[in-house]
């Protein structure tokens, strides 16, 4: 894979994140959004925040800056705050990706934590997209269990749409 292929893959990641939010998350009640669930990260809200935080942490490591503070739960419905935070993280990710070169994919820029030092940029980029797919699938299942109509997030459909 080259830098352009990763930019395309992140186009999918960002599009599916936004589709999940717009088609499902924005449509459910506050109770559904924050309902405790004894699975993975918990509520739909907590799953979304985890997905955002992981994106932010890995890209911060690639850039070499401290990651932003994780969003602490607030009482009530804090979707507006979460969406604004997510938009900011996505903006930073897009800025990094716009400057990504093929040569950068085979560098190991991460200094901390120590266990991540041997990772190449391409491995981190692939992991973040894969992680997002995993957690979107978990969220889609939670939504389905609450009676919400969900849609597929298969990469191939994004590829068809963007050809």
Fold and architecture overview:
The chain is mostly helical and 163 residues long. The chain has one domain: Four Helix Bundle (Hemerythrin (Met), subunit A) (Up-down Bundle). Helices cover 61% and strands 0% of the residues. It has six helices and no strands. The chain has helices at 3-23, 30-34, 44-63, 79-99, 121-145, 155-162. The protein is globular, with a radius of gyration of 16 Å. The two termini are 18 Å apart.
Sum up the structure in keywords.
single chain, 163 residues, mainly alpha, Four Helix Bundle (Hemerythrin (Met), subunit A), 0% strand, globular
- Structural class determined from secondary elements: mainly alpha
The N- and C-terminal alpha carbons lie at a distance of 18 Å
Strand content: under 5%
CATH evolutionary superfamily: dinb family like domain
- Which shape, going by the Cα principal axes? globular
Mean pLDDT: 94
**Gyration radius over CA:** 16 Å
The quaternary organization reads as single chain
The CATH architecture comes to Up-down Bundle
Sketch the topology as an H/E string, one letter per element.
HHHHHH
Low-confidence stretches: none
Main sheet record: none
Q: Number of DSSP helices?
A: 6
Which bin fits the share of residues in helices? 55-70%
Q: What is the strand and helix layout of this fold?
A:
Blueprint: H1 3-23, H2 30-34, H3 44-63, H4 79-99, H5 121-145, H6 155-162
What's the quick description here?
The protein is an all-alpha fold and 163 residues long. It has helices at 3-23, 30-34, 44-63, 79-99, 121-145, 155-162. The protein contains 6 helices and no strands.
């Amino acid at each position: 894979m080259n830098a352009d292929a990763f930019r395309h893959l992140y186009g999918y990641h960002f599009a599916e994140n936004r589709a999940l939010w717009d088609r499902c998350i924005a449509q459910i009640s506050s109770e559904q959004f924050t309902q405790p669930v004894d699975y993975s990260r918990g509520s739909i809200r907590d799953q979304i925040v985890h997905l955002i935080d992981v994106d932010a942490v890995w890209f911060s490591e690639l850039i070499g800056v401290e990651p932003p503070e994780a969003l602490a739960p607030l009482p009530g419905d804090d979707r507006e705050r979460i969406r604004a935070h997510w938009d900011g993280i996505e903006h930073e990710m897009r800025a990094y990706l716009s400057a990504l070169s093929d040569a950068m994919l085979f560098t190991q820029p991460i200094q901390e934590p120590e266990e991540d030092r041997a990772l190449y940029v391409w491995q981190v980029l692939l992991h973040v997209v894969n992680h997002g797919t995993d957690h979107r699938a978990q969220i889609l299942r939670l939504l389905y269990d609450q009676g919400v109509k969900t849609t597929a997030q298969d990469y191939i459909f994004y590829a068809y749409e963007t050809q």
